[in-house]
Amino acid sequence: MEQKDYDDPIKSPVVQEIIMSNRIGAISMELAKRLNIEPVKALQLFYESKTCADLHNKETGLYLFGDLCIVDEYIQEKEL
């Protein structure tokens, strides 16, 4: 019998949202450290970025990259 996606707790939308929230928190903390700004400001800047939109867009595949790579991507975005 094939297990459906919604039967897998890891694929649950609630669990996926928790994982994404945790990742965005870690990304924001690293941005705050690198940019020497407050974590809340880093979170705000990240949420307003194309990088964050790409992270949420499964078609870009950015969600498969590590948090530090995503931080680098954000910094590159802002340098352009």
Largest sheet properties: none
Q: Mind telling me the C-alpha Rg?
A: 14 Å
Shape: globular
Strand content: under 5%
Number of helices: 4
Describe this structure in words.
The chain is mostly helical. It has four helices and no strands. The chain has helices at residues 13-35, 39-47, 50-56, 67-79. Helix 1 (13-35) crosses helix 2 (39-47). The N and C termini lie far apart (51 Å). The model has no long low-confidence stretch (mean pLDDT 91).
Please summarize what this structure is.
With 80 residues, this protein is mainly alpha-helical. It has helices spanning 13-35, 39-47, 50-56, 67-79.
Layout of strands and helices, then pairs:
Elements: H1 13-35, H2 39-47, H3 50-56, H4 67-79
Helix pairs in contact: 1-2, 1-4, 3-4
Short descriptors:
80 residues, mainly alpha, 65% helix
